[in-house]
Specification:
The complex is a heterodimer. Chain A is α/β, with parallel strands linked by helices. Chain A is built from 13 helices and 15 strands. In chain A, helix 2 runs antiparallel to helix 3 and helix 7 runs parallel beside helix 8. By secondary structure, chain B is mostly helical. In chain B, helix 4 packs antiparallel against helix 7, helix 5 packs antiparallel against helix 6 and helix 11 runs antiparallel to helix 12. The chains are: A alpha/beta, B mainly alpha. The structure holds adenosine-5'-diphosphate (ADP), iron/sulfur cluster and magnesium ion.
């Protein structure tokens, strides 16, 4: 399957003014999304999933900090030209802004960034960085990539009825629409996300909606532009179980109907397993394992990162529940991301870091080792 | 509608109480002070007489200058009104763009340069700024009149409004306040989740955020500044020899022209309360149209 998006070496640090040190939100993130597939990103909260998604959208606002990397994306045919021009305008010198049909949306941003003391890259000119990024992203945001935010009720304007908010987005994306036509279009969209009384819902204010309804409305708004990639940040968190699976079904249907890919972010590996084709497991700002669902969840044997293993086994199976076993928990806590990283971030919680290997784990953070094609693990156990 | 009437009646009642309070106080004080005064020494009857005169707007003749008080006071208030409103507009024209700019382009060095600039200019006292401007203008250019041109001398009367309005607009220390308010509110609105979400849809959010976030605070701050502006106007009127209410009040105080003072106090109260009334009406309108 052809690639839709490839993220490489994404690095996002925030600077903590109070403590005068960096917060590592993302470190060297690398994953790829094929057309028409779902990539699930899973990891405990605070491990940088949202930050990674936001930086793909160019929405990390330019606080003093670090942001770097490459993000290749294949825009829609009709936006191809404008994206290409915007990307090339970023920097003519870098010749490698293009990979077949994919364009590096972060192209030229490097030049607004100045290296200081490795591994910290200090953004000297976040203003220019943002402006450049915006210039490229304005052809992409909304039109090619849409995003659903973590908390649906807060991503709707509380002062405006939902119908009007959807209309506003439609109007924004296609300038010439008639009033009557608009309304029927909104109703159509709402019906598509399984809201069966669109005329009523249209006139409601967001605080009158239940969380599940709000999530549907948010999805409807995200689908207005028929994006190629939908980033869903914890779309099921906070919903009850039936609603969870309905939303997932909804997303799957929308994908099929509009030929869309999905980046599905969740802290719940069970949910991710039920929708994703590929899975990236994140821990403390790094992708510790990337592979297909088969390789990561289904295969009982075979190479696995210790963290993934712990995650997978913390989900109780039916047999476990019948036998009334205690739930397994992962020992320890998420590391403080303000600390300097030396060695593997999972070390304090890792049961495998014993004996000879432990020294290695402590000294250097492992790079990604490819164990089988398409399956890479960042763990010294699999060093070849 | 009921709520509207409630707000309206509350404001009116407020104004009436304030007028009664102010006039009572003045009447008591003037009764002790030397100087001639209608109704002086007649106790309650005299007070009622004054109130009647005030509320019918038939103020009578000034015992000092012998002129009709109405003819004296109304043009002065008109001038002060022009000065006040003009200076508010000047303040807004300077401060709102700075506020929007410095929060929208938060990291640029010129945004804090502008903020500091706004602090500096709003901490210059009006009297100093006034004389400075007069000095500079009259010494190096002759484009603007530096004092109020009376009827006979008027070529272009508008021009004599320019300097006092600008000086009061800059010097009335509301610039830095508005800059801070606008910047803070805009930043708050722009980082609201739903604004980020609509940004993610590719929409431009600056305009709607301005509309949503800063109009109401600006309205409330402007109208609550009006009493202070009248205070500042007294000084500017003096510096620029501008025949406004402040100067008239000062002159009347020196002359012990008590009837004029009472009328000025009365009209000032009306003025201030009218501003408050307009403010709550506008805010009421905004809140109902929003919800
Ligand atoms: N604007 C910000 N400023 C400073 N730190 C931030 C900011 N946004 C996120 N972080 C930090 O980045 C880390 C990752 O956050 P996030 O991506 O929201 O985690 P999650 O995986 O739960 O979505 C957190 O530890 C958080 O403290
Ligand atoms: S690198 Fe070492 S500490 Fe890290 S997960 Fe592998 S074995 Fe555990
Ligand atoms: Mg998150």
């Amino acid at each position: 399957m052809p690639m839709l998006a490839e993220l490489e070496g994404l690095k996002v640090y925030f600077y903590d003014q109070g403590d005068k040190r960096f917060i590592r939100a993302c470190e060297d993130i690398k994953f790829s999304i094929k057309e028409g597939t779902v990539l699930g990103v899973v990891g405990e909260s605070g491990c940088g999933k949202t930050v990674a998604a936001l930086s793909m959208m160019g929405l990390i606002d330019g606080e003093p900090g670090v942001i770097e990397g490459r993000f290749f994306f294949k825009p829609k045919q009709k936006d191809r030209r404008s994206v290409m021009l915007a990307v090339m305008r970023g920097s003519r010198k870098d010749r490698d802004f293009r990979r077949g049909e994919l364009f590096d949306l972060f192209n030229g941003l490097k030049r607004c960034v100045e290296y200081d003391q490795y591994p910290y890259t200090i953004i000297k000119d976040s203003e220019r960085w943002l402006r450049k990024n915006n210039r490229i992203m304005e052809h992409v945001r909304g039109k090619n990539i849409s995003m659903i935010f973590q908390d649906p009720s807060r991503s709707l304007n509380p002062f405006v009825p939902v119908g009007i908010q959807i209309e506003k987005t439609i109007k924004w994306l296609s300038k010439n629409e008639k009033k009557g036509q608009l309304e029927s279009e909104v109703a159509e969209l709402l019906r598509e996300v399984r809201i069966f009384n669109p005329k009523v819902v249209m006139n409601m204010y967001p605080d009158a909606l239940s969380l599940g309804m709000a999530q549907r409305v948010v999805i409807a708004i995200a689908l207005v532009s028929r994006p190629k990639l939908l980033i869903a940040d914890e779309p099921t968190t906070g919903l009850d179980t039936t609603n969870k699976y309905r939303i997932i079904e909804l997303l799957q249907q929308a994908m099929e109907k509009h030929d869309m890919s999905l980046l599905f972010i969740s802290h719940n590996i069970g949910i991710v397993g039920s929708i994703a084709d590929d899975i990236a497991v994140m821990y403390a700002g790094i992708i510790v394992e990337f592979g297909s669902k088969q390789q990561i969840i289904i295969a009982k044997r075979g190479p696995k990162h210790p963290y993934t293993e712990a995650l997978v086994s913390s989900v109780p199976t039916d047999a476990d529940i019948k036998k009334g076993k205690k739930l397994k928990v992962i020992q320890g806590i998420v590391p403080n991301n303000k600390m300097e990283v030396v060695g593997c971030p999972f070390l304090p919680r890792c049961p495998y870091a014993v004996g000879k290997i432990r020294r290695k784990c402590r000294e250097r953070c492992p790079e990604a080792f490819e164990v089988t094609p398409g399956h890479s693990i960042r763990c010294w156990l699999y060093a070849n | 509608m009921v709520r509207f009437l409630k707000v309206f009646m509350r404001e009116i009642l407020n104004a009436v109480l304030l007028i009664i309070g102010v006039t009572t106080l003045l009447y008591l004080i003037f009764n002790i002070m030397p100087g001639s005064f209608i109704g002086k020494g007649q106790g309650f009857v005299g007070y009622i007489d004054i109130i009647r005169r005030l509320f019918t707007f038939k103020f009578g003749i000034s015992p000092v200058s012998g002129r009709d008080i109405g003819n004296l006071v109304f043009p002065a208030f008109r001038n002060t009104l022009i000065l006040t409103i003009g200076s508010i507009i000047v303040s807004l024209l300077i401060s709102v763009p700075i506020g929007i700019f410095s929060s929208y382009r938060r990291f640029k060095s010129y945004s804090w340069t502008l903020s500091i600039f706004s602090y500096i200019i709003s901490s210059i006292p009006v009297f100093f700024l006034g004389y400075l401007v007069i000095y500079l203008i009259s010494r190096y250019t002759a484009v603007l009149p530096i004092y109020y041109l009376y009827e006979a001398q008027r070529g272009k009367p508008i021009l004599s409004y320019v300097l006092p309005i600008i000086v009061l607009g800059i010097g009335n220390d509301s610039i830095s306040e508005i800059v801070r308010l606008v910047g803070g509110e805009l930043e708050r609105v722009m980082s609201e989740d739903y604004v980020v979400a609509s940004k993610a849809r590719g929409e431009r959010v600056l305009q709607s955020s301005i509309h949503e976030g800063i109009i109401i605070p600006i309205i409330s701050i402007i109208f609550s500044k009006i009493p202070f502006l009248i205070g500042g106007a007294v000084i500017v009127e003096h510096v620029f020899n501008w025949p406004g209410a402040g100067r008239l009040a000062f002159q009347a105080t020196l002359d012990r022209d008590l009837p004029v003072l009472v009328v000025i106090a009365f009209l000032s109260v009306l003025f201030v309360r009218a501003a408050a009334l307009i403010k709550s009406m506008i805010l009421y309108y905004y809140q109902t149209s929003e919800r």
